């Protein structure tokens, strides 16, 4: 067998996760007196793809000590990938310096591998620095580079550069890069971009109906809640209930509550709470407090008082704020005896102070 044939066989064994066969083929080649760098590269790749980081590094060290067979830029690129996948950024940067100190030159794979590693480690300045060095050097970015940068800009919420990069690879992303579309949508939902709803809805059209992501639905619920778009928010909430998605984040629930409050939609809030209780969503005392406040504002005092029983059913004790909500509702509707009674209840539960005594 020729060295290239051994190399392809080792690579194929590695891709099929047959690491022992790959190592055996490598040993056969060495026993036959074949010591080409492509064999070492193939075995390094095998170990890398199968998560055997230390073995991949050991192969490189053996190659580096070989008298007649020295590492090529391909060898270094594989080593960079090994360190990048393991988030060993310091080791990766040491390898980059070793390339700089040698007679070898960076290839597009060198740059893309380093950018991917910085992206994985969320080292945005280093990622940008590597990209800028490409723009200034002889090796120019390819489509793979732009896709990596688009992902990095989306993850780092750098919307301006994300949008500029997206324009360069729009067709490629729209056709088959759904994960990047998800990342861009996520970036918009977390931003204060004035047209974020329009941008998000345009990107959502590119996602197939069967590509449902619960986490994405939750982010969209929060966005529509923040924008006070109650119908759009409730449509996604209904879909989440149907798909048995469970929201456990307090911030999402508070956004939903605030949307109902701004729209003065207490009956809709009450319906949402009933569904959330049944579906196992995160319940907060503020859910019930908000409903009490809104009932009080509409002079629906019996319903407001009934919320106390709902709170007890879910083991939410009454706090000072609970009593103050009730006091304000009774006081503002001219029902002073009930308001005074609430103050008395506050003292009974240990929530009274001198200010409350003056009210009495």
UniProtKB/TrEMBL annotation:
The keyword Cytoplasm does not apply. PPR repeats lie at residues 107-141. One of its GO terms (molecular function) is mRNA binding. InterPro entries: PPR5-like, PPR_rpt, TPR-like_helical_dom_sf. Keywords: Repeat. Pfam families: PPR, PPR_3. The keyword Membrane does not apply. Belongs to the PPR family. P subfamily. This is PPR repeat.
């Amino acid at each position: 067998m020729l060295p290239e044939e051994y190399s392809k066989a080792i690579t194929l064994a590695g891709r099929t996760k047959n690491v022992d066969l790959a190592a055996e083929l490598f040993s056969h080649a060495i026993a036959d007196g074949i010591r080409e760098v492509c064999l070492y590269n193939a075995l390094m790749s095998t170990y890398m793809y199968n998560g055997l980081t230390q073995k991949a590094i050991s192969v490189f060290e053996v190659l580096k000590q070989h008298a007649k067979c020295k590492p090529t830029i391909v060898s270094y690129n594989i080593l960079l990938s090994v360190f990048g996948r393991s988030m060993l950024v310091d080791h990766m940067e040491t390898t980059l310096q070793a390339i700089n100190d040698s007679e070898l030159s960076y290839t597009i794979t060198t740059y893309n591998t380093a950018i991917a590693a910085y992206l994985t480690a969320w080292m945005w300045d280093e990622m940008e620095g590597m990209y800028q060095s490409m723009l200034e050097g002889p090796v120019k970015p390819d489509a793979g580079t732009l896709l990596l940068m688009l992902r990095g800009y989306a993850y780092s919420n750098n919307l301006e550069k994300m949008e500029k990069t997206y324009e360069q690879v729009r067709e490629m992303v729209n056709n088959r890069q759904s994960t990047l579309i998800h990342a861009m949508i996520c970036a918009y939902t977390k931003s204060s971009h004035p047209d974020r709803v329009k941008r998000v809805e345009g990107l959502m059209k590119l996602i197939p109906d069967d590509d449902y992501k619960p986490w994405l639905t939750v982010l969209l619920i929060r966005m529509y809640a923040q924008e006070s778009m109650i119908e759009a928010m409730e449509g996604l909430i209904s879909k989440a209930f149907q798909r048995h998605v469970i929201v456990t984040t307090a911030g999402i629930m508070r956004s939903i509550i605030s949307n109902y409050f701004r729209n003065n939609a207490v009956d809709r809030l009450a319906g949402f709470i009933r569904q959330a209780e049944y579906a196992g969503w995160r319940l907060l005392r503020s859910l019930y407090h908000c409903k009490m406040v809104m009932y009080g504002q509409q002079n629906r005092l019996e319903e407001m008082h009934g919320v106390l029983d709902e709170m007890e059913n879910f083991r939410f004790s009454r706090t000072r704020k609970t009593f103050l909500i009730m006091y304000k509702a009774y006081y503002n509707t001219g029902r002073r005896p009930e308001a005074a009674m609430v103050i008395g209840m506050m003292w009974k539960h240990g929530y009274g102070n001198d200010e409350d005594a003056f009210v009495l």
